[in-house]
Specification:
transmembrane, 2 domains, transmembrane helix, 43% helix, 4 helices, three-stranded antiparallel β-sheet, Nuclear Transport Factor 2, Chain: A, membrane, alpha+beta, elongated
Amino acid sequence: MDFEQLKQKISRTKGSTSIEAVIVFSLALALVIMSIGTIFTLYVDTQMDWTLTNSCDDFKWVPELLNPYEKLTESIMAQKILKDLHNTQLKSMVSNVDVSFQSTEHTNLIIVYLTYDYKFPTYKKSHIADYFMVDSTSDDGLSFESSTVFITNTGVKYHLESCFHLRKSKIPIDLQEAVNRGYTSCKNCYGNVEVN
């Protein structure tokens, strides 16, 4: 093979290599952008959960607002949650925000769902945050001291509602039921004292 033939062969393969390099670079860039977006979803989800929790906490101390069958109450709560979200920097990061409620007539549990889509590229397109509210009002309308504690989806401890261990899941349960199921007290909430 002489020098001219070698030169022609190299010039033909250069074009193919350039196209392959552009394709590989484009795929790598897309993966990096999606990875950064996915990591950013953790921040957004944490902030949305925090905002939902703070908004709902304002309502749980007013027992008459926790009537699960009262559509006006749901509307007021939804407006407050959406207003609180609008007052944060999160409004530019999410879209299609919706607040919904679920309750049953036989329990005093109300679940508030906050559904939203991400505006940035990520493998997750949307997320649902939830918040559990327990109505601690008896049939005569008087509030009583609740023995409700909280457990997580994966843990073996029960917690006070303000415990930082409840940031990912927060399931209300009666203290005696938690003890019967084998849960033990969180040392951050109760110290070394076992509460029964």
